[in-house]
Amino acid sequence: MRSASPGMRRAPPRISDRSLESEALLVAGAIEVGLVGHERDIDPSTTIYAAVLAAEAAHRPDLVAQALVEYVAVMVEGGEYDRARTWAPRARAAVAAIGDPPELAGRIDMALALALGLEMRHEEALVAAQTALEHFERGGAASRRWLSVAVNLVGEMKFEQGHYLEARPYYERTLDIAVDALGTMHARVANGHGNLAETYFVLGDLAQAERHFRDSLAIRREVFGDASVWSIHSYAHVGDVLFERGRFEDALATYEQALALRLALQPARERPDTDGEGVPTLYRDLQTVGQEAWLRNGIAQCLIELGRADEALAHADRTTEVDLPPDRQHPDLVGRIDMRGQVLLALGEWDDARAHFELAVARLREGYPVGARYLAWALVGLGRAHVELGRHADAIAPLEEALVQLGATPQAHLRLQGQAQLALSRARWSLGRTEAARAAAHAAAAAFVAAPYRGSGELEAVQAWLAAHP
């Protein structure tokens, strides 16, 4: 991704009073930033760079500092991380020249923290985010509108590191601040609901997850309308939680509605622009690169559960070749590249399923941090395929690895845990590990009993296996 070079697009209008011109351009740039992800050909970078030039021409150090801070931020939003780091010292010097107001100083650190996080440099990102938060805390009322953003960013850094419970208080505080400052129907409030919902979803509290995802969706529909990447994003999350609750028909309808919106908003298979005809931006691209695959994978998993695996294969095949995007750890992007294998498993095509799962595991290991939860589905699928093929020794390692990963959030994905334990019991028994096999079968039964839903006959299959293997 890249931002347009200054002057690459339309030249912003000139105003005879350069101070007024800079102020007007800063307002226009802020509006354009807010429209990214909703309007396709928005280019805040050109507008904000023009604000920098106008402020310098007006000899207004305060406006120069403000415009440079905005420019660093928009560089990050456009994915220009190195360029943002190049401009950051100039912005810091300009901010220092007017007394280091906490709001502006904090925004520089916040932008750099976001860039570091998206480069998967999580420890450095957390330090920068906490520094930004300290600036905003010190700034009091003048910095309050950015305080929720910084608190949220610290939460995101903790979430990305797998510290989900530690992230939740930051997300809760973010939401409280945003509602207090902006009311209940603002885009930042929608973001707050969505991020808080993520923690509940990952930790297995599906009722709370659904409530906050639906609140986020309602706000985004009101603010942006249905035909927006942000609303589609929330629809997809609602579909995910409905699926996890076993409401397959409702989940399918939600995914299909969102996919229709996605395809109307941007033609199928279209990638973000790189030829100068459109302005690729970080936040829009994070949504558009993976949304179609996310939704088709959701449809496929619902169709499998509804006994329509033949139909599911067509959707899974449309997502198999989607490349992992640059910020591959992002929890909202396409991590379910195992879905074709899941369909093949449901169709009884064991060897083809095994081959796909092996490819998916290799790609996920390369693209995601160690222990990423997306890997668990592919590992369980691989283990189950090995068991069905009678390759019991090969099944043990992927199944045990998946259970270690799932054990980090023991109340989530209980059905997947049950499937892994059931396959593990079969593999262990065939290898003569009878005691360990029965322990796995009992764990499978417990997981299926506790799960929000289970597949037809899954619990009965475990009970039958236990009865047949005393």
Strand content: under 5%
Count of individual beta strands? 0
Largest sheet: none
The general outline is: elongated
Which H/E pattern describes the elements? HHHHHHHHHHHHHHHHHHHHH
Q: State the share of residues found in helices, binned by percent.
A: over 70%
CA(first)-CA(last) distance: 59 Å
CATH topology of the domain at 337-470: Serine Threonine Protein Phosphatase 5, Tetratricopeptide repeat
CATH architecture descriptor name of the domain at 337-470: Alpha Horseshoe
Classify the secondary structure makeup into a structural class. mainly alpha
Rounded to an integer in angstroms, the radius of gyration calculated over CA atoms is: 25 Å
**CATH homologous superfamily of the domain at 337-470?**
Tetratricopeptide repeat domain
Mean pLDDT equals 86
**Which CATH class of the domain at 337-470 is shown?**
Mainly Alpha
Low-confidence stretches: 1-8, 267-283, 324-329
Instruction: Determine the number of helices (DSSP H or I, runs of at least 4 residues).
Output: 21
Indicate the topology.
Blueprint: H1 18-35, H2 44-57, H3 61-77, H4 81-97, H5 102-118, H6 122-139, H7 144-160, H8 164-182, H9 187-203, H10 206-224, H11 229-244, H12 248-265, H13 282-305, H14 309-317, H15 339-346, H16 350-367, H17 374-388, H18 392-406, H19 414-430, H20 434-450, H21 458-468
Helix pairs in contact: 1-2, 1-3, 2-3, 3-4, 3-5, 4-5, 5-6, 5-7, 6-7, 7-8, 7-9, 8-9, 9-10, 10-11, 11-12, 11-13, 12-13, 13-14, 13-15, 14-15, 15-16, 15-17, 16-17, 17-18, 17-19, 18-19, 19-20, 20-21
